[in-house]
Design a protein that fits this description.
The complex is a heterodimer of chains A (74) and B (469). Chain A is an all-alpha fold. Chain A folds into 2 domains: 38 residues; 34 residues. In chain A, 76% of the residues lie in helices and 0% in strands. Chain A contains 3 helices and no strands. Chain A is elongated, with a radius of gyration of 28 Å. Chain B has 469 residues and is mainly alpha-helical. Chain B has a single domain, classed as Amino acid/polyamine transporter I, CATH 1.20.1740. Chain B contains 18 helices and 2 strands. Chain B is globular, with a radius of gyration of 22 Å. In chain B, 56% of the residues are buried. The N terminus of chain B is likely disordered. Classes of the chains: A mainly alpha (74), B mainly alpha (469).
Chain lengths: 74, 469
């Protein structure tokens, strides 16, 4: 193996890798996304109430849909 | 220019991860492909002139067009067809335009969120709100996606059934097409192939023209929102809800944000992301309006089309649009189901990967994205299999899928609203006041439509309170 070509190959590879890193924003790298997650935030009382209200709304309306299916089937 | 082929190949079972020069950053196959796409964008952006702008637009469009035309899926086109057949040209034409404006408002938020965070919707919900609320949204998404996928295969079966293709063959062929679209293991290729297929949705426009529509009546309906034959009845409310569900659904939020992250769009690309979304909405609205117009002759001739499936619509339209028109209608139904099957199963796979912290990108080779690809094809296979079971009430499932989508939308929108107003992750890109007002308006309309549906089911006579019958 020609040591000269080995060095050239390694340099070219480094340049390629550097250009990949340069082309992407730091948090666009898959590994960076995996390492760093968005910190958790706490919900306010109003937000929690809204979430629960919409959850109850969804469950109730699903009941209505099931009733309609049952009614239609009869 | 980076040529992925010049980079080292994966060694053994170890992913092709490489240490970058600073020894701190790990580069994956997914990054290499994405960087390649981004370099093209940067190079094009650096140039001036109309052709460079047009090329930049070509490079950056995709998720918006796919999500909007993808949502013109089997049940949606069937809803529009039922709308035209039951109500003709009138109130529902401008109403459908309104629903697409609502979709634009909602999807624009996912463009900003995806470009600012480079993360998928499911991942952000889990990270910011914790697993308790995260699982609620995941269950909503997965149940909705699976039911919708079933209806896509119903549309595929019905569309090809018009040409005499046996159900098993049509469903298997569709699943193989879905599988084949993934073979490139490249987001860019997948996106372009799916986008070309999605543009076939516009086939409903020639069908509408073949029905010799009265353009004066169309123009008048779009301005006056009239007539609404029969007034507000239980049927009207069901169609109203089905048409809303045909345009705004939870999977669209998850899909577009994840696709934007996978494509690699950044905050510099938000303007083009918006153009992409509006362009997609305009194309999808045209196809939707064309479908209503195409089936309006059924209303004019008093033909009952209440429980029509796709193939029956095509057959019933034959005297009005000719055999070519009917064949195009059936092909359009097949295409609507096919493209949506691809996009919806992809949205499930993205969400699963984000929540399970498994690699999730269409740029991944199969070995590295095994779980991502398996979720995608297995979910589609399960839905396809269900359609082949004899005696399943397919018409019911089709009608109710859009209704369920509308009901599940307000909770999904609340997550989106909170995320897009979160300074910590959005910085200066938080929603301005006008965008928040519009978003809340959409939530109010959706909840009101859901409650109206509830009233129409529980006590139909109460519709009189809203001027109905």
């Amino acid at each position: 193996m020609n040591p000269q070509s080995g060095i050239t190959e390694a340099t070219r590879q480094d340049q390629d890798l550097a250009s990949i890193v340069a082309a992407l924003e730091p948090d666009q790298l898959a590994s960076a996304k995996e390492r760093r997650h968005c910190p958790r935030r706490s919900l306010t009382v109003v937000e929690k109430c809204l979430f629960w209200f919409l959850r109850i709304y969804l469950v109730f309306m699903f009941g209505v849909v099931i009733y309609q299916i049952w009614h239609g089937a009869r | 220019m980076i040529d992925p082929k010049t980079l080292p190949k994966p060694r053994g079972g170890v992913p092709s991860d490489l240490l970058a020069p600073d020894r701190d950053v790990v580069i994956t196959h997914e990054d290499i492909d994405r960087a390649h796409d981004r370099e093209l964008v940067w190079e094009t952006r650096a140039k001036r002139g109309f052709s460079s702008r047009a090329r930049l637009l070509w490079l950056l469009i995709g998720p918006g067009i796919l999500v909007m035309l993808g949502e013109n899926d089997g049940p949606s086109m069937l809803s529009y067809a039922a709308t035209g057949a039951r109500f003709g040209i009138g109130f529902f034409l401008p109403f459908v335009v309104l629903t697409f404006l609502m979709a634009c408002v909602v999807q624009e938020m996912t463009v900003r969120l995806g470009a600012a965070t480079h993360r998928g919707h499911a991942e952000l919900i889990f990270d910011r709100f914790g697993p308790f609320w995260g699982w609620f949204s995941m269950v909503d998404l997965m149940v909705g996606n699976f039911l919708t996928l079933v209806t896509e295969f119903i549309a595929i079966r019905a569309g090809l059934g018009y040409f005499g293709v046996p159900p098993f063959v049509s469903v298997l062929a569709a699943w193989l097409v879905l599988f084949g679209a993934l073979m490139a293991h490249r987001y860019w290729t997948w996106e372009r192939v799916t986008m070309v297929a999605a543009l076939f949705n516009l086939v409903f426009i020639p069908v509408a023209l073949l029905s010799h529509p009265h353009f004066g009546a169309i123009g008048s309906a779009l301005i006056t929102w009239k007539p609404l034959p029969g007034g507000i009845t239980r049927d009207t409310v069901l169609i109203l809800l089905a048409d809303i569900g045909a345009t705004v659904t939870p999977w669209m939020l998850f899909f577009q944000q994840s696709a934007i992250a996978d494509k690699g769009l950044t905050t510099h690309d938000i303007r083009f992301g918006r153009i992409d979304t509006v362009l997609g909405a305009a194309l999808a609205a045209l196809a939707a309006l064309a479908t209503i117009v195409a089936t309006a002759p059924l209303f004019a001739h008093g033909m009952a089309a209440g429980n029509f499936e796709a193939a029956e619509f095509a057959q019933a339209l034959r005297p009005f649009v000719g055999s070519w028109g009917a064949a195009l209608f059936a092909l359009g139904m097949f295409e609507a189901g096919m493209v949506a099957a691809v996009t919806i199963s992809t949205s499930s796979a993205y969400a699963f990967g984000e929540v399970a912290h498994r690699p999730h990108s269409l740029n991944l080779p199969f070995q590295q994205g095994k779980s991502f690809y398996l979720v995608l094809v297995l979910e589609a296979a399960a839905a396809a299999g269900l359609v082949l079971i004899p005696g399943i009430p397919l018409v019911y499932i089709v009608l109710l899928v859009n209704v369920i989508a509308v009901l599940a939308m307000p909770p999904a929108l609340l997550f989106l609203y909170l995320l897009v107003n979160d300074h910590e992750i959005m910085g200066d890109l938080v929603s301005p006041l006008w965008a928040n007002v519009l978003a809340l308006g959409v939530v109010v309309v959706l909840i009101a439509a859901g409650l109206l549906f509830g009233v129409s089911v529980i006590d139909p006579h109460a519709l009189a309170l809203f001027g109905g019958k």
